[in-house]
Design a protein that fits this description.
The complex is a heterodimer of chains A (about 425) and B (about 190). Chain A is of the alpha+beta class. In chain A, about 45% of the residues lie in helices and about 15% in strands. Chain A has two domains: about 325 residues, Cytochrome-c3 Hydrogenase, chain B (Orthogonal Bundle), CATH 1.10.645; about 30 residues. A three-stranded antiparallel sheet of chain A has the order 3-4-5. Chain A has a three-stranded antiparallel sheet with strand order 8-9-10. In chain A, strands 1-2 form a two-stranded antiparallel ribbon. Chain A is elongated and about 120 Å long. With about 190 residues, chain B is α/β, with parallel strands linked by helices. Chain B is built from six helices and seven strands. In chain B, strand 4 and strand 5 form a beta hairpin. The radius of gyration of chain B is 17 Å and the shape is globular. The two termini of chain B are about 25 Å apart. Classes of the chains: A alpha+beta (about 425), B alpha/beta (about 190). Chains A and B meet through helix 3, helix 8, strand 8, strand 9 and strand 10 of A and helix 1, helix 2, strand 3, strand 4 and helix 6 of B.
Chain lengths: ~425, ~190
């Protein structure tokens, strides 16, 4: 008698195998947060995958109902800590639209500059960690070198490296410090060369090509089905960028391109994000040229001139109001409001912006009291993550981190 | 806190005429308000297809809001997707208006770049699921069910998504007791 004769060991296809359930996470270095994936494997092929989320649920939506509008704002930095300017923008603009607050042009430009810089830092972190997931350690250090430079610029403006809390209803917290625009410009001028440097390490690297080209292919239909937005959608060939299609701030005054991919695989998502960083550099450079009032020192000088002219007019016995005030577009606050007690009138707004991960939306319902009646966050990662099982089923387990990393999901935004 | 929250909740129902959003909560007041609200284009187009639509006017960002009866919802959604190119379901937010619950679907078209908000009032906390039309609704509706207790009929897997599976109650409801001793983690 040999082992073949024992029933239940061999089938007609060969050795009998059973499916293996592997529980990935919740604590896993490659899940960028706390995510659990219940994976059923047949050999090395993923047969089924169920994402379990909610480990980072901090009830941000409930918190909005028990805090005043201004008290709630600092907690937004923690919704998505890699690109929190965007969360602040949609929140603040929802209130501005409900209350019909005027936003000066200088503020719009400051917001655009900070948001685009933030997009670069977010993509840089993605670049580093994505390649770290693939097993390449060194790109992380290159990416963090420039990321730190941008954080220094942010620190000068907002006082914080990551948790900014900088935008205000109808304005920003403080003006750009004197000389900041020049420093930002010199950084932005060298940034494209740095991106060339990253690309020279990665883009044609045979190991990276082997692990990314043709992997995790997502067609346009699948993207639409699951509500995938952002770079992952553009990599599939749909040029959907809210900055272009539904311009907010002053994006309609700026010339830039929307990079799109063709195949929608992991490699295309990588290429689209690298191209987006270059486009962001272009946008920032144009914004720095066009910002009304220019450098802070220029605005201060102008204000001093006006003050002196008003004093002189008063001395001459003329009405000081005859001297024209500072151009309202140069201000950093549209209209003076008491932030601590501020309440917009009753109303409803749904504001969306193009965050580094896709469409980030805030649905706000105000009932005229100092607290919001309902705030609902539409995180781009929430929808982008829901497509993961569809991409993984039938693929090799070893591709999981390449595909998951390429979606650029951040879990605090999924769970809120 | 509870006193203040009661106060908050009452304002939209007792103060109808100003905002289209809150007017939907009180049918009696709505009759007087309805003529003031302009009919949006997508609402008119749906009406032409024999779908009864309540026009709620644009919201503060200019997004057209329409209220569709649960019975007509799937037909309207299919029409919006197939004929009017609303290919992206952005989000589904549940709202607790104290006496009833409501889901708001925000749609976007990557072809015409238009937004549209569909509101559906849940009848006894039951509302039809839009999963058959936009599979993106899957997780969004599970979130609304989890946090507000709206049951989406026709959803393939309506389970809790953000809260633990053995959680009691629905946290985003206005009458949710935050300090209920049964909710203390260590005692469960």
């Amino acid at each position: 008698m040999s082992i073949q004769d024992i029933p239940g060991i061999f089938t007609e296809q060969g050795l009998k195998t059973e499916d293996l359930v592997v529980n990935i996470g919740p604590q896993h270095p490659s899940t960028h947060g706390v995510l659990r994936l219940i994976t059923t494997l047949n050999g090395e092929v993923v047969k089924d995958m169920v994402p379990v989320i909610g480990y980072l649920h901090r009830s941000k939506e409930k918190m909005a109902e028990s805090r005043s509008y201004f008290q709630y704002q600092p907690t937004l930095d923690r919704v998505e800590y890699l690109s929190s300017f965007f969360d602040h923008y949609v929140y603040v603009s929802a209130i501005e639209r409900i209350a019909n607050l005027k936003v000066p042009k200088r503020v719009q430009y400051i917001r655009m500059i900070t948001m685009e810089l933030n997009r670069i830092t977010s993509h840089l972190l993605w670049f580093g960690t994505f390649l770290l997931d693939l097993g390449a350690t060194s790109p992380l250090f290159y990416a963090f070198r420039e990321r730190e430079d941008i954080f220094k610029l942010f620190e000068d403006v907002t006082g914080a490296r990551m948790m900014y809390n900088y935008y205000r209803f109808g304005g920003v917290n403080a003006d750009l410090p004197p000389g900041w625009i020049e420093r930002c410009r010199s950084f932005i001028r060298q940034m494209p060369h740095k991106i060339d440097e990253y690309e020279s390490i990665v883009t044609k690297n045979p190991i990276v090509l082997d692990r990314t080209v043709g992997i995790g292919r997502m067609d346009q239909e699948l993207c639409m089905k699951y509500g995938v937005t952002g770079s992952s959608l553009r990599a599939s060939g749909i040029a959907q960028d809210l900055r272009k299609t539904n311009p907010y701030c002053c994006y309609d005054e700026i010339a830039f391109d929307v990079p799109v991919g063709t195949h929608g695989d992991v490699y295309d998502r990588y290429m689209v994000r690298m191209a987006e960083m270059r486009e962001s550099c272009k946008i920032i450079e144009q914004c720095l040229d066009r910002i009304p009032g220019g450098d802070n020192q220029n605005v201060r000088n102008k204000q001093a001139e006006i003050d002196a002219a008003k004093a002189a007019a008063k001395e001459r016995g003329e009405d000081p109001k005859s001297v024209p005030d500072l151009d309202p577009d140069w201000l950093i606050q549209g209209q003076k409001i008491n932030l601590m007690t501020y309440k917009p009138p009753a109303g409803e707004a749904f504001t969306v912006c193009e965050s580094p991960r896709g469409m980030l939306g805030c649905h706000m319902i105000s009932d005229g009291t100092p607290k919001a009646y309902r705030v609902k966050w539409r995180g781009a990662s929430f929808s982008n993550l829901s497509v993961l099982p569809e991409l993984m089923i039938g693929n090799l387990y070893s591709d999981l981190m390449a595909i998951f990393g390429s979606l650029d999901v951040i879990l605090p935004e999924v769970d809120r | 806190m509870s006193d203040e929250q009661n106060e908050n909740g009452k304002t939209p129902t007792t103060n109808p005429p100003e905002s289209g959003a809150s007017a939907a909560t009180k049918p009696a007041a709505e009759e007087t308000v309805a003529p003031l609200i302009p009919a949006g284009l997508y609402g008119q187009v749906l009406e032409m297809a024999n779908i009864s639509v309540k026009h709620l006017g644009p919201d503060a960002t200019g997004v057209e809001m329409i209220d569709i009866a649960p019975a007509d919802l799937l037909r309207a959604a299919e029409r919006l997707r197939d004929q009017h190119q609303f290919d992206l379901m952005m989000s589904c937010s549940g709202i607790d208006w104290k006496d009833h619950r409501e889901s708001v679907y925000h749609l976007y078209s990557t072809k015409s770049h238009h937004y549209l908000a569909i509101k559906v009032t849940a009848v006894n906390d039951h509302s039809p699921s839009l999963f058959p039309v936009w599979p993106a609704a899957d997780w969004h509706e599970r979130e609304s069910f989890d946090l507000l207790g709206i049951h989406y009929d026709g959803h393939p897997n309506l389970t809790r998504i953000l809260m633990p599976s053995d959680w009691l109650g629905h946290p985003l409801r206005k009458d949710y007791k935050v300090d209920d001793p049964r909710l203390v983690w260590n005692e469960r």
